[in-house]
Prior knowledge:
This protein has helices at 13-39, 41-48, 53-87, 95-106, 116-121, 137-185, 194-215, 238-295, 309-323, 327-355, 357-379, 385-398, 405-423, and strands at 4-5, 8-9, 110-113, 132-135, 221-223, 233-235, 296-297, 403-404. It is mainly alpha-helical. It has four domains: 4-155; 161-255; 260-355, no CATH class; 359-423. The strands form four sheets. It has a two-stranded antiparallel sheet with strand order 1-2. A hairpin with a 2-residue loop joins strand 1 (4-5) and strand 2. The relative contact order is 0.07. Mean pLDDT is 82; it is low at 1-6, 124-129 and 430-441. Keywords: Coiled coil. Residues 247-288 form a coiled coil.
Amino acid sequence: xxxxxxxxxxxxxxxxxxxxxxxxxxxxxxxxxxxxxxxxxxxxxxxxxxxxxxxxxxxxxxxxxxxxxxxxxxxxxxxxxxxxxxxxxxxxxxxxxxxxxxxxxxxxxxxxxxxxxxxxxxxxxxxxxxxxxxxxxxxxxxxxxxxxxxxxxxxxxxxxxxxxxxxxxxxxxxxxxxxxxxxxxxxxxxxxxxxxxxxxxxxxxxxxxxxxxxxxxxxxxxxxxxxxxxxxxxxxxxxxxxxxxxxxxxxxxxxxxxxxxxxxxxxxxxxxxxxxxxxxxxxxxxxxxxxxxxxxxxxxxxxxxxxxxxxxxxxxxxxxxxxxxxxxxxxxxxxxxxxxxxxxxxxxxxxxxxxxxxxxxxxxxxxxxxxxxxxxxxxxxxxxxxxxxxxxxxxxxxxxxxxxxxxxxxxxxxxxxxxxxxxxxxxxxxxxxxxxxxxxx
Length: 441
């Protein structure tokens, strides 16, 4: 170790042997890695693809790097073989051999020549503009590691995107095609239904997405934060996921239309029944109004509207949609009609109740009068002249036509008041008691 040379102390035989053993293992590992990169499916796909955008730029650089890697490896292999040949000349290497081996193993004795194209495109090349470079074996290995890492990262990233997205897009496109056929069968078509327009848009988006993924896979890669490993990250599926959700929404819309097709007839029958009941109720209200006007005097009787012709027209339109299998138009129309038909039946019932209210009041007064008469009989006052007189007066008013409800109600109250005084009970509110036994009639 006392002898020195241009590269420092001359290595002894043991140091040379250890260095050659290390270089042998290193040489084998590098060769294995380069062969694996050469045979990588992603690299073969990149070589045959028509690339665009970011991927095209990076592949131009990575392809040049791979070319340089093999040139570097060949120069590395030549130097390694030369060193091994020198060491194998003698069992005990001479001083001249050790000096030469030290120069090969430690000095910048490796000259690498590269093509102008490869040199120009390879990233971060030392000594830009030169067609040859000198390295030590250690420096050359470091340089190869740099080029290998960047090249492998690019190849692995592109392969990961190609392995993930196109297959998923194809599956979604197949589902899209099935959905389009189903949509067509139920009348959901572009320009006629929003879901049909959505299907067209999804189709265009997926077609463009697949084309871009094939030509520029690196545009769909999200690197992992803080990761330096080749291929660290994941494919960007944002556009794919958005269109998958949109297709699912369309599918639910079509399912709703299919449901309409399956139970459309039952819903139409129910609608006809609701509107028919509403018509009958309105007819009953109109008939009752005529009866009320004939039998009840001095009473406000609301007018009764005619049948809902607009709803009948819409119902006929719904039936026409069903005959022509226009389910996408039938669905919203049925929902609207069902709500309107329920409202119409409720309105008809409210109209009948309002019209017959005077008859209900008369019936309540008649019932109250007869109830007091029965009570009077139970107390033994059925033959009392005043009670008979007031009962007859109230009864004539309630059973005559037209009946003045306000006057009849006062007559019933007078009869109640007179009866209550006979029973010794409380006075009937709103009516003064009789001042004598002769009555008012």
